[in-house]
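tl;dr need the bound structure. longer version: we got a ligand (iron/sulfur cluster) that a collaborator sent over and nobodys looked at where it sits. i said id run it. heres the input, straight from their email, havent touched it
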Amino acid sequence: MAIRNEALSCSAFAKLKAAYDDRKAVLSGWKAGGKKVVCIAGYDVPEEIILAADMLPFRVTGYYGGARKSAEKYLEYSFGAIWKGLWESIAEDYAGLMDYLVFSSSSDMFLKLYYYFRTMQRLEPERPLPELKYLDFELVEHVFKTQERNERELRDLIETVEGWSGNRVSPDALREAIALCNEYRDVLTEFSALRGKDNCRVTGSEALVVIGGSMFMERHEAIDLVRAVTEAAKGWKKAEGVRVYYVGSPQETTEVYELAEANGVNIVGEDHDMGARMFDTQVRTSIEPVSALAERLLNRMPSSEKGSIAARVKAIGEKLEETGADGFLTYMNNNDEAYVWDYPSIRKNVLEPRGIPSVTVQKQTWPLTEPETLAAQMRELAAMGKEAHHG
Amino acid sequence: MAEEKKAYETRSIKRLEATKTASAYQKEWFKSLKPRVEAGEPFALVGADAPMEILRAMDIPFVVYQWWTAICAAKQMNTQMYGYIRDAGYRDDICSYCSTAYACALDPHPEEGPWGGLPKPSILITQSECAVMGKIENLMAEAFGAEQYTMQRYYEPVITDKWWEKTIEHWDQLANERRRAFFERELRDLIAFLEQKTGRMFDMNRLREIMDYVNEQDYWYRKTRDLIAETKPCPVTISDTVNAVMQAQWQRGTKWATEHAKSLYEEVKFRVDNNMPAVPNERIRLMWIGRGLWFNLGFYNYFEEKYGAAFIWSMYLGLAADAYGRENYESDPLKALGTRFSMITDFLHTPPFNSEWFLKEARHNQVDGVVLLTSENCMNNGDFYYNMVKTLEDNGFPVCLLRADPADAKKWNQETMTAAVEDLIVNRIEPKLKK
Ligand code: SF4
């Protein structure tokens, strides 16, 4: 099982897939169309602010498929696959297409890349790099001073994008953008219900395409297409495979999910931002908009990299209930292994009491160098999950 | 053959009294710590970037857990320690530098650790320099039953070029008002937490005293660093200085540490005045960038003997000289302290501030080449080495990159590492010297 024909023959799905598969074409098209684009590297940059300035947010991703000559030259081995890919996209593949790039503190590696590119601007001034901005949010400590700090960072971003766009970000424009993005997150939530336990109509890889593809298009179009796919998918055949919840390195292509599906595992939820975590929390509309955006940052599911172990244990327990998963997969790229320190606590406090089997996959590279080993691990997880489900 | 065997000697030659007295003092201090902790006094385990001066001002004893790693490594105990981590279901091949104290918490016989073992901390204070560290700290706190207090970080990158010219006299120019205010608030919050937790009141005048001691201590470190930098052949090597400085930095802000720093200077000066080079056949001066090779400080001896190549620079003395002192703090000690504890990471790990400083130090110390140790199993390891190497090499300092685990002796490959440094000496430095 992978992306099924009924999905591929759905025109809304096909449009989302086209954007998902060729992100650079989207960026080039926007640029050629004279749109002002703000590129984003980080999972916590609020698109609402960019939209309110009448600019387009474009997520820069890391699974750049070609040779990573530039990343190999400039980056240390401690940068895992996704970070090397991100470097390659920014330094080479999207060179000249990006005018502005905003990083956020969603991962320590975004900070490093920000500093590295800032230094590259000095080292190689002829290189066409965008204007850079770093948003230093605190994302772990839930206290008032964090809220204040994050609001301050957001107000800085507003000032910056006002300068870039020449447009004032008025409270009304911000409210309008928040409403639009809430609607976008709503339609993705409705779509994701089709990954649910009793009515699972989409596979993990199909979900990645819909969620990911929708990121690379204008919000109104994305909303319409996700709605259309949701309607269509209600009539698709039930998705097979042992229901597994995924934590770990973000998956920016469908390869790993498809490999899982081919070996009896269907990923029905994930904690990364190319999947369900991206839209898991709404922005409150009844309060001042900047406060509301800052509040969302702290209300999101604690990320696998940054969240404290206690917060992760709690959140994973909730997600397993929500998704009705029968298996648990921890997937780590080489040198992207913060999650390894969560796992024993999750196993003890969440998985064992529920009898949920798990597999931990480590030291992965991109492209996959040992797909056979990975396939065997997926089969093992599928077998254990089946047994747990029936037993 | 006898000469070859020396390559496997892991203990360094201790030339200095200051090194011996620092170790002896630390041992005694540790001994006196245990009964205090057992009697119910608060005891803090802290990250290397925690503001230790605040704890000192409140008379709360502390151990820096990364330094504890160094002590365990020097005693060749780490490999055994990481076994406890593996047995608990974690990986023993990553993050060794930051996980030793956690391993100690899992040790069934903690009293067999260095100096009678790490007492059980009641408080864990950190800044979580990286996300993984935050998680290991969660585990440590739980295992020790300690209360964890994490200070927020803030990276607004506004420090200027040539930061080392600003740190001491013009620290207010290192960061903008927002960042200075941010860290001042972090310090005030920490003080409030500690007061509540320990029932002890913070005393600003005591902090002033400590700041004065630190300034004096670092004045002696500057003089020592300058003396080493300017003296050829070098009076001491890093085998002498790293322990002497690291252990005294642990006691930073005390009368003892200040006097120790002065005695270190005097001893080095005595060696200079009496023409007592550390490596009498010194032909080559090398810089060691990166964490100390604690389990194998004898590594450097081989190159001294065989090539007359002396490792004369490490960050421990260099940073103590350039990064810690803060004069003119009187009106605002917390703001001044804030610019210290929050910015060491910037100075050391953030490009281009790190590379510019290393270049300045390479020039000042008249080195011929650089060995750069990158910590193999640290995911946070990345200081933009490309930029560091380029900056140094473009200015005539060839660089050899070593990739190793500085904490776990079992992964160290003496042959490979020796060969890499020999390659730097024989193929890149010596031909240049012959010209
Ligand atoms: S990644 Fe590096 S800095 Fe972070 S906890 Fe591990 S060893 Fe320490």
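gonna send this back to them w/ a short note. The CA atoms of residues 184 and 219 of chain A lie 7 Å apart.
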